[in-house]
Design a protein that fits this description.
The chain has helices at residues 9-15, 43-58, 67-90, 105-124, 128-132, 145-152; strands spanning 93-95, 101-103. With 156 residues, the protein is mainly α. A hairpin with a 5-residue loop joins β1 (93-95) and β2. The relative contact order is 0.12.
Length: 156
């Protein structure tokens, strides 16, 4: 499907761009949960998955539907750690067998992992700019006027 990704209803409500006729009334509303780490993850990735899942759940962002995205993050995080270790060990440039000096291939891997991690982090609201656009819930003492509008109807 071409075009912009649709925004979740909650994000539209927070931004103030929600229009009643354009909301997906069948949008899933999963509950906050800490999912089990997938079996295919190696130990380091599993540890990262669990730590991130617990932190995200504390902030109301993690659901069981997000396990796949978080597993991808954990795998890429491990690759980034390994690539950074190689860059640290060999340096940012290396000499080929022919004597030419080139960029360390592990630096390219590390940079690619950083881009992939940044995309996933943005989806979870883990960067300052993405976090500024997301609120997980309104304060308890403040009623959401749009929610009241939907509940009462526009003629009430």
């Amino acid at each position: 499907m071409a075009g912009r990704k649709p925004l979740p209803t909650q994000l539209k409500l927070v931004k103030g761009t929600a229009r009643p006729h354009r909301l997906n009334k069948d949008e899933p509303r999963p509950t906050v949960a800490v999912p089990e780490a997938p079996d295919h993850l190696e130990d380091r990735a599993r540890d990262q998955f669990v730590a991130m899942a617990e932190m995200l759940a504390r902030h109301g962002v993690m659901t069981e539907l997000d396990a796949g995205a978080l597993a991808r993050y954990a795998v890429v995080w491990c690759r980034w750690i390994d690539a950074e270790a190689e860059v640290k060990r060999r340096g940012p440039v290396v000499k080929t067998e022919a004597g030419n000096i080139i960029q360390n291939p592990f630096l390219a891997i590390a940079n690619k992992c950083l881009l992939q991690m940044a995309q996933i982090e943005s989806e979870f609201g883990l960067t300052p700019s993405s976090r500024s656009r997301i609120r997980t819930a309104a304060p308890a003492e403040q009623a959401d006027p749009f929610e009241e509008y939907l509940t009462r109807g526009k003629n009430a």
